[in-house]
Design a protein that fits this description.
The protein is of the alpha/beta class. It has 2 domains: about 5-30 and about 65-155, Rossmann fold; about 155-280, Hypothetical Protein Tm841, Chain: A,domain 3 (2-Layer Sandwich). It has helices at about 45-55, 65-80, 95-105, 125-135, 140-155, 165-170, 210-225, 240-250, 265-270; strands spanning about 5-10, 25, 30, 35-40, 60-65, 85-90, 110-115, 155-160, 175, 190-195, 200-205, 230-235, 260, 275-280. GO terms for molecular function: lipid binding; RNA binding; structural constituent of ribosome.
């Protein structure tokens, strides 16, 4: 039976989740001015969002991990005795990381590398790799794990609200932005991660308070009576995230726990500070 090794990209935010598994992280690079940071290693979410708060004129950008670096990580896993690798990546519509993982896989001889496009980002991606680790512990095959990841990919939703579209538009991460360009600095839109892994604006909203209320309303409409794991994501916006949590639990008292996860700096560089996201994923 194969010994399956796991890797995940840092866009999953797995660094902020305690776990017991051997899961190396493929780290993207954050570029701020003339400085370069390895995500989480050199800069954490709290430090990054404080940096933006201190100097709102900063325009951070990012770079994906080099293919050669990913290959070195694969080779390190092989050296540990893994003879099959499973990699979970951020959506290929949001980053070149998936392509880099595939290119590195083609450079590795004699070891099968399976690269799974999560078509998502943040907690759903982390959930996928953590479930995979648990299934390996239970003796599941790569086929069983892959099928389960497809269920998670097809049964999750993320809605989120941003304080400004400036970051998403500047970094080219927003699909269908043309309808928003004339007033993008004045609106607080609601966005979604689409089924095929894009970020798309779905509603124009004029104030942050209305945006928060509509985010709650829309999420509860989408959730309905589904029995799902509900989660929050935020970029230095704990208070607004807590407002969303309380409203959801008031409407659905059966949901006893809603954990909140910070948006990692490389993702936050595209979304901007103040983001609050809410989602659900198959348990």
């Amino acid at each position: 039976m194969s010994k399956i090794g796991l890797l995940v990209c840092g866009n999953s935010g797995i660094d902020y989740i305690e776990h017991k598994y051997d899961i190396p992280v493929i780290r993207s690079i954050l570029l701020v001015g003339d400085k370069e940071y390895s995500d989480y290693v050199d800069i954490t979410a709290g430090d990054f969002y404080q940096m933006l708060a201190d100097d709102p004129s900063l325009t951070p950008s990012t770079a994906q991990a080099a293919t050669g670096v990913i290959l070195e990580q694969y080779e390190a896993m092989v050296a540990k005795g893994y003879d099959e690798l499973l990699v979970v990546s951020i959506s290929n519509k949001l980053s070149g990381t998936y392509e880099g993982c595939m290119l590195a896989a083609n450079m590795l001889d004699d070891v099968k590398v399976h690269v799974f496009d999560s078509k998502s980002v943040s907690y759903p991606e982390a959930k996928m790799i953590l479930d995979a680790a648990k299934m390996i512990e239970e003796g599941k095959t790569i086929e069983e794990i892959w099928n389960h990841l497809e269920v998670l990919r097809d049964n999750h939703r993320i809605l989120f609200s941003v304080e400004t579209l400036r970051y998403l538009v500047k970094n080219g991460r927003l699909s269908g932005a043309s309808g928003f360009l004339g007033s993008m600095l004045k609106i607080k839109p609601m966005l979604e991660v689409t089924k095929d892994g894009r970020v798309e604006a779905i509603e124009k909203i004029r104030t942050l308070s209305k945006a928060t209320n509509r985010l709650i309303e829309k999420f509860l409409e989408d959730l309905g009576d589904k029995d799902m794991e509900v989660f929050l994501i935020h970029a230095n916006a704990e208070e607004r995230a807590d407002v969303v949590r309380k409203a959801i639990q008031k409407a659905r008292p059966d949901i006893k726990e809603i954990k909140a996860y910070p948006l990692t700096p490389v993702v936050g560089a595209h979304a901007g500070p103040g983001v609050v996201g809410v989602g659900y994923i198959h348990k």
